[in-house]
Amino acid sequence: MARVIGIDLGTSNSAAAIMEGGRPVIIPSAEGAGVASGKAFPSFVAFTKDGQRLVGEPARRQAAINSEGTIYAAKRKMGTDHKFKVFGKEYTPQQIGAFILQKIKADAEKYLGDKVEEVVITVPAYFNDNQRQATKDAGEIAGLKVLRIINEPTAACLAYGLDKAGKEQKIMVFDLGGGTLDVTILEMGWDETHKAATFEVLSTSGDTQLGGTDMDNVLIDHIINHFKQESGIDLKNDKMAFQRLREAAEKAKVELSSTVTTDINLPFITADASGPKHLTMSLDRAKLEDLISPIVQRCRGPVAQALKDASAKIGKDIKVDRVILVGGPTRMPIIQKFVEQEIGQKIERGIDPMECVALGAAVQASIIKGEAKEVLLLDVTPLSLGIETLGGVFTRLIERNTTVPTRKSQVFSTAEDNQPAVTIRVLQGERQMANDNTELGRFDLVGIPSAQRGIPQIEVTFDIDADGIVHVAAKDKGTGKEQSIKITAPKKLSDEEIQKMVKEAEKFANEDKKRKEEAEVLNQANSLVYSTEKSLKEYGDKVSSSDKEKIEKEAGELKEAIKTKDLAKIKSGMESLQKASHKLAEEIYKSTASQQAAGAGQAGSGGTESHAHEDASPKSEEKKDSGKKKDDIIDADFRAENEK
Amino acid sequence: MNKEDLKSKQDVPAQDPPQQETEAPAKESVKDAKPKESHEKMISVKESEYNKLKQELSDSRDRYLRLQAEFDNVRKRLEREKAEFVKYANEGLLQQFLFAVDDLERTIDAAKANHQDYMAFLKGIEMVMTQIYDMLRKNNVKVIETKGKKFDPHCHEALMVMESAEQEEGTILEEFQKGYMFGDKIIRTAKVKVATAKSTKEPDKTEN
Questions:
Q1: CA–CA separation, A431 vs A395, rounded Å?
Q2: Percent over 90 (pLDDT), chain A
Q3: Are strands A89-91 and A84-86 parallel, antiparallel or unpaired?
Q4: Cβ neighbours of residue A114 under 8 Å, at least 6 residues apart?
């Protein structure tokens, strides 16, 4: 099946994306990533003197030696009568665009292993019909069927899923690229009949000569001046030094988006008669922001203009509901702060601003093809879900951030001989111990036939359906008896609450781990005492009475130790009991040949099994009929349980 | 069906004059409007059949959703595993690198001692470099050849050009920064100076 991709045909960089499993992903450019451009590639096309055609990185790399054969930023000429004259041949901007699209098509087909015939291409919101038609023609020339030309800011909104809001909103898209600034204000409407968002451009504004390149240049100048003051040497005309400097400046700029200070170290950057010279300086974010501040201030005019025009259009002062940033330089905190201050609205986060437009184009492509229906908006469980098991331990069945609907089962057993019922406490949270988490509900599974501990098999199944409803069922695999609970509205937690719970789990991680280990050691000790006593009952006559006495004594001591909950004591008690029981074990193995191994083997492995928590209270009384009524559904309430 | 939608579907020829100064389509709809359903023929099915179909649809839908969710969960797991893998993937390489670090520290100690045997010091550093080159070679990292070679935009990047009488046009004259290949992948292009023919530039040459 041929695939449909979305293409961001940019002035300086181009990129493509495709929907994979319901989410858009960038298609990497075949020659690999450039330094600054992520997975995109520069919108360069070149014709070499020996008749080759180059597109992307290779075209850019040879631009210096082949300026007359290299075409850059052809997008600026889209829709005009301009002809690029190269070595006696003429090319229209559409043809140049087509070369870039052909490369994208080839890269995408190589990446996907599949034909690409249909595309969605983005254009700036201010493009007129001619420019849109020319872009479409470029697609046709490249042998692609252009399903739709959409506005770049609209694509950015789709990448953020704003069209899912289902209500009207005003959106500002602030697109600061390598060399241009585009500010667009959109009004998103909601078409109830088709359950689809509509986007209307209220205003556009911008500056075609403003961008990240300007920022790089002031930073490089700053470093050069700094070095000149220190050493008296001007690096500007030293190509080799300048190359290293450019890279170091770029790196420093990127680093200062996440750290507040960075070092620039360029050893042996140059030399004079006195010896080698090194460039070493530290740069902090404040200095960088100081340097680029004049450039940032130049964004103010276009933003104000866009707001003014949009207000004029709707006939009242506009209130922007959402702000989206597009373009590499918008990763810088100073730009983000600037926009938030100008608009008085937090920016949307979470999507790479350089990939945003291409990703949105892919979303649009899949909407047109009917691939992305509303059903694909799958939720995730914000917190882990599980049950309480022996010793008050929280055993997770469904990890946090699992996409739903999903189902997980695990088999548990009983903790005591002849245990008639188990209580399933359904819990939500990230802590290791059950009582630190929130109880969503609980129920008992009764009527478990008398059996030794660890023998019954209780299968607990968690199922979260597409509506987020949690079904928990426990089934005795022996009798087929089943009991379940339905938790209709697991308390909607706010992001802050979820974050708080996750943070708390991290904070108490060590403490919790210790407590969980304690519980596990206790479980193991109990299980060892149990199995030893059981073996002693069955095989006690096979060992000498002194051995038997010794085992009984050690078992008694371990029991005492368990009562004190002193871990060190318990551990050493377990060791001595195991040692004392060696004789017994030997005898057991001798006679097991004819024995049915099941019982003994089962009891011996107590430590590794999970046992469902046994609730001593006769809770089972509440639901006498549970045996017959298999699908008894209880709507639980979700108050936090702290009574234990 | 809204008018704007139609428009964006068509080939955007000269249509009704756009109301906006931007001349962009006034409104973009994310979804294509579906054509109004014509008067459909009514068919009848047995209630049991209808219920069966309804049930089948709901079952399939659930299965589909679950598959999607599972796909998503598998993807998350793969990402986790990949991140875990990447985190320690360089271990072997770093181990090798530590020897070079040790030796470089020794060179610093030696230099600090301020003794005069410059040649012995240089020899030491050269030995360290030999070790590093060896490490690169074993890891399949190769230097991209430049000087005297013909410029190739797939592995070289031209920073400047110079007219040259002796060298053929397109020949690399000087290297500003070495380039490297890792296997068959270029991890850094070589930054170079390239020779041009010793002819005066004419902007629009007809043939070459």
A1: 10
A2: 49
A3: antiparallel
A4: A1, A2, A3
Q: How far is CA A53 from CA A78, A96, A209, in A?
A: 20, 11, 28
Tens digits of per-residue pLDDT, B171-195?
999 999 999 999 988 899 999 999 9
What is the distance between the alpha carbons of residues A113 and A120, in angstroms, rounded to a whole number?
19
CB atoms within 10 A of CB A199: 26
Cβ–Cβ below 8 Å for B4 and A158:
no
| pTM of the shown model | 0.70
A406 near B CB under 8 A: yes
Residue with tokens 């953020």: A160
Q: A37, A104, A525, A614: which is closest to A327 by C-alpha?
A: A37
Q: Residue A310 burial by CB count (10 A; 0-12/13-18/19+): exposed, middle or buried?
A: buried
Give Cα separations from A476 to A124, A420, A449, A502 (angstroms): 63, 11, 9, 34
Distance from CA of A145 to the nearest CA of B (A): 11
How many residues are listed for chain B in this entry?
A: 208
Inter-chain residue contact A148 with B11, CB threshold 8 Å: no
| 3-state class (DSSP) for residue A369 | coil
Q: What are phi and psi of A545, to 5 degrees?
A: -65, -30
In this predicted model, what pLDDT tens digit does every residue of A462-481 receive, in sequence order?
998 877 788 999 999 989 89
Find, among A247, A185, A174, the residue nearest to A210 by Cα: A174
Q: Which of left, alpha, beta for A119 (phi over 0: left; psi -120 to 50: alpha)? A: beta
| SS3 assignment, position A372 | coil
Contact B34 A376 (CB under 8 A): no
Q: How far is C-alpha B101 from the chain's CA centre?
A: 31
| Mean pLDDT calculated for residue range A262-284 | 91
Chain A interface includes B83 (CB < 8 A): no
